[in-house]
Structure formats: C-alpha cells, structure tokens
Amino acid sequence: MNLPNSITLTRICxxxxxxxxxxxxxxxxxxxxxxxLASALFIAASITxxxxxYLARKRGQITTMGMLLDPLADKLxxxxxxxxxxxFNPRLVPAWIAVVIIGREFxxxxxxxxxxxxxxxxxxxxxxxMKMFVQIVSVVAVILDHRWPVWTWGRFVLxxxxxxxxxxxxxxxxxxxxxGDYFVGxxxxxDRHVVKRQRRAFILRRRKKQNAAVI
Length: 215
What we know:
The chain is mostly helical. The protein has helices at 3-23, 33-58, 64-88, 95-118, 126-145, 160-214, and strands at 151-153, 156-158. A hairpin with a 2-residue loop joins strand 1 and strand 2. The chain is globular.
C-alpha cells in the first residue's frame, strides 16, 4: 500500500466519522463544537483529494487500486455529506437538491466507465474543477449556518446563511451544467469512436474480399 492510496483510504475512513459527528448528540451545539469539528473534517477530507493525486503523479505511484479508490472516495464523501445535510439543515438542503447533486456524480462516473471500456477518456472540465471549490464552500457554509446564520467577529459581520444559500444554488447550477458538458463531450467522442471502428471494419472486409479474389 503506497502513500497516495493510504491517503485516499484515510478520506474514505473519515466519511462515517463526519456523518457521526453531524448526527451525534455528544457534542455541544451551543458553542458550535459539532459544527466546527464537522467543518474541519470535511475540509481536511476534501484537501486530501488533491494531495493523493499530486503525490501519485510526482512519485510515479499511479496504480489500478488508486484509479478505483480515488473517484469512489470523492463520490462517497459528497453523497454522505449531502445525505446527512438533508437531515442536519433541511432549510438549505432539501432532499431534491441532494438527489440532483449525488445523481450528477454517479452520472459522470457512469459516462467515464463507458468511455474507459471503449478506449478513450473524458477529461475534467473547468466547470467540474470550479464545482469542486463551490462544493467545499457550500457544505461548510451549510454546516456553520446550523449554529451561526450570521457570524460576528468584532466589526466584521459574515452573512453565513446567505453565503450557504447562494453556494448551494450555484452548486446545483454547476452540477447540471457540468453534467451536460460531460455528456456532450462523451457523445462527441463516442460518435467519432464508432465511426473509426466502422471504417476499420469496412477496410478489413475489403481486404478480405480482395485477398479471396486473388486466391
């Protein structure tokens, strides 16, 4: 087990811990212990997503297990976070929003799986990368909103509720748009792939006919 895969496994192990913290009554919500701990856990888990990939490329440790575990860990983290937030803060995350966001993740995974079986890849778009950043902001803001709709620190006032509200709706928009972007990219590549395969089959049939005629 190399270091990048160990970091990925750590991210997977943090998922049940995050869900337990959000659902548990063992933490004092009056002082925001639950919200702060859950936010820190989610941010740390999200950061490891970039660290494991960077280390795998730098150290030349890209493995089949890593290629399987890394996207699986991402999908599980997002699914767990939004499923738990439906119960933790339903004012900002109703069930249908969680379905849209989680559905998008598994749609993209399905398209990538089909693309891999056909011998090509679908690169992550800029929209997908932006969605990851908005994703972190939205989850953390929704968690903090449970205790601090407005965060006041001296003269500094942070409207946490409105940041969470805006980030969640931006997340929904980016999820739908990036899903469409992935689907269009997949459709174009699969069309070209099918055309090339048909051409190769046609050329092979012609060669066989020519060889048979010569014989």
